[in-house]
Design goal:
The structure is a single chain. It is globular and about 40 Å long. The chain has helices at 7-13, 65-82, 87-96, 108-128, 137-144, 159-166; strands at 2-5, 31-38, 45-51, 57-61, 101-104, 148-151, 155-158. It contains 6 helices and 7 strands, in the order E-H-E-E-E-H-H-E-H-H-E-E-H. The strands form 2 sheets. It has a 5-stranded mixed β-sheet, with helices on both faces. Strands 6-7 form a two-stranded antiparallel sheet.
Amino acid sequence: MILHLTRKVQNVNKIKVVAQPQTESNCYFNNWYVDIFSTGFKGKSALVFMHDMSRLPISIPGKSLQKAIPPFLEQLKLHLLNWGISNEEIENELTAANKIVYAPTSNKSILGSINNIKLNAAYSLTYNYTDYGSIDWAKINLHMSVHLFSVKGKGHFWSDKIIREHYGLLEKPKKWG
């Protein structure tokens, strides 16, 4: 799995990135972009992971990338289960995620999508929650997964629809929390 880190994430976590990462993965969820954003609560930040092909966003509380990776993988698993993806395919994705390589960001379109999600998430968090401790991150992530994106040359699309099409599943998700 390649995590493309913004400079802010690199600096906060003191991580050196590989300019030309080499991976041998056939997994769909191989490339993710990671940025940090303010939640709107004083001194509280979160990391947002965004899949490059589907623009699926997953937010995890805190600044530490090392601490965020296990909850990120758990949230990814919950999304995939919610969309009816088989346990075998999920295990293949998560097994491939064991080897993580850090790379710089290279796609401005994805960074623009991340900035859009960061603004929406910060507004949603401060509007819907009175204190940071009461935030239901799983619910926030499920709602963000059906965010409409617009990509130049590709038109408008929803993250969940792209993923369900990839796996040949076009029915509605099972549960929205």
